[in-house]
Amino acid sequence: MSAVLFIEQVLNGLQLGVMLFLMAAGLTLIFGVMGLINLAHGSLYMVGAFAAAAVAGATGSFLLALMASLAAAAAAGAVVEVLVIRRLYARDHLDQVLATFALILIFSEGTRWIFGSFPLFLDIPAVLSGPVTLPGGIAYPKYRLAIILAGLAVAGGLYLLITRTRIGIQIRAGEADREMIAALGVDISKLYTLVFALGAALAGFAGALVGAIQSVQVGMGEPVLILAFVVIVIGGIGSIKGAFVGALLVGMTDTLGRFLLPGLFGLMMDPSAATTVGSALASMLIYVLMALVLLVRPTGLYGTA
Amino acid sequence: MTRERLVNAVILLGLLGTALGAWAMDAPYTITLATKVAILALAGVGLNIALGLGGLVSLGHAVFFGIGGYAMGILASHAQSYSPILTTPFVIEGTKSMPVIWLVAILASALAGLVIGALSLRTSGVYFIMITLAFGQMFFYFAISWPAYGGEDGLSIYVRNGFPGLNTLDPIQFFLICFVLLALGLGLTARLARSAFGLALTSARQNAARVQAVGISPYRLRLVAFMLSGMVTGLAGALYADLNRFVSPTMFSWQTSGEIMVFIILGGVGRLFGPVVGAAVFIVLEHVLGGLSEYWHIYLGALLLLVVLFARGGIIGLVAGREVAHD
Fold first, then answer.
1. Which of A185, A224, B94, B145 has its CA 20 to 30 A from that of A29?
2. Element spanning A240, H or E
3. Can you tell me the ipTM of this complex?
4. Which is more confidently placed, A71 or B87?
5. Closest CA to B73 of B172, B146, B174, B135
6. What does the domain layout of chain B look like in residue ranges?
7. Chain B residues in contact with A113 (beta carbon < 8 A)
8. Separation in Å, CA of B23 to nearest CA in chain A
9. Which chain B residues contact residue A98 at CB under 8 A?
């Protein structure tokens, strides 16, 4: 195992973590402000990816595709919020889980109906294809590096939005006391729609970025959604900072676990058995991490009880 | 309450009548559908102990369903290849006997329920939902990446396992086995709901602080309820695998967890027979809509959305009135 390979895996872990943050930020924001658990967040990720693939296919422009992913996911989010989600804020979590599960069925089958069952492909733009040589002679795909930077930039932008703008103040106030900010003259239902659309746009953006590395297909959102759940459980539900730390932790643990565990078991057993045991355990590692965090802190790293 | 009892009797007799009628008319496929309803209903009855009585929204009950399925798959595949499961320190052979498989499925589910419950019940509300979901994924990925028992492809069994004195290959006899187990599961839940344990569990759902104040630990109540719930769902998993003579990681998937929960909601939360109605409606929809359109999940989703938003008592609530405590 060389140091170059290791650093490459660390970067891959960072890339996964940053993408998970884009998903988890929306989820945790929606939960923090509206108290809603949204299983359909993965569908919005999928909507973003499909919108990007369709626009890229029609125009050939990756930039337009990214903008389409943001617009489509935000629009889908706003429509769903007004039609369905709005009725769920006062309900218990069970109703929320089921209604958003129903939305997943509708979104997934609807997308399959429009685009068919075959995966679509989103090409990496020519400027970003090929490797880039990092200091130390590490060759790393330019596109993945761009994803990391884009994700970090969005995280920074989100931080500024929440801490420095009027909307951010309203969002934070909404988290603290819903009735009070409604009494102070903020149109709470408009704010909710906005927050939901914002979360949706982040998910759609992540879907489009990842869609260029993997294929764009129905059902792509749910595995990511569940990873994002693990992230916010670890970070503490409602905390954006927790989502960021949790996302990086999960991204690193998953990537490095898959990379290191088979070798680690190779020290103790024969190589083929080590690969089996190592990869089986690596796929469970983040859940073990989650269980450990919960043993120590049942409300997550940055959660409040 | 008498009206709900009447509805319940109609439901149970309807299921039995469908299977017997299909048997008389020599329609084995309909018997298989009825068997599927009975098994999925049993899985829902299991989840209902945690969800309906305990208020524990577990989105990871596929864990138990899958454990039951793999208990059957592992035991039967070893019996079918005449290779022992374990040779050291003592020999454990596979088996093709249903009662033994059921017992193993139930015990394994109880153990999993103990571990998952002990960890997950430290939290509540939305954390609990997400954690049970995550544990489900953990088992799912483990089943996929562990090649010894088929990995992603799953395990096939050539001949359905046996039950002493019965021919399980005959659809109607296998249906009757599943039907009796479903009735036992329903009876157990009904007794449980009326027992001191069930009453305490219900109070813990409604007001945990008061239960704590009278000296009962809500955590322990919930843990036992979660285990019992998992054991029943695990049994259903073993039956389901036997019905298909096939087990695969899909049984562990989170969609399976979601569907088991959908049975309860379609039928009505907190209703003893909710899962039976829900499973029956689900299978009928799958069969009827699935024949009409490849995209029948859209209609299922729309129906589910309507039930959650506008008919909160579920189907039984619509038929039998809403006099059940729903909090």
1. A185
2. helix A240-266
3. 0.84
4. A71
5. B146
6. 2-251
7. 295, 298
8. 34
9. 261-262, 265, 304, 308
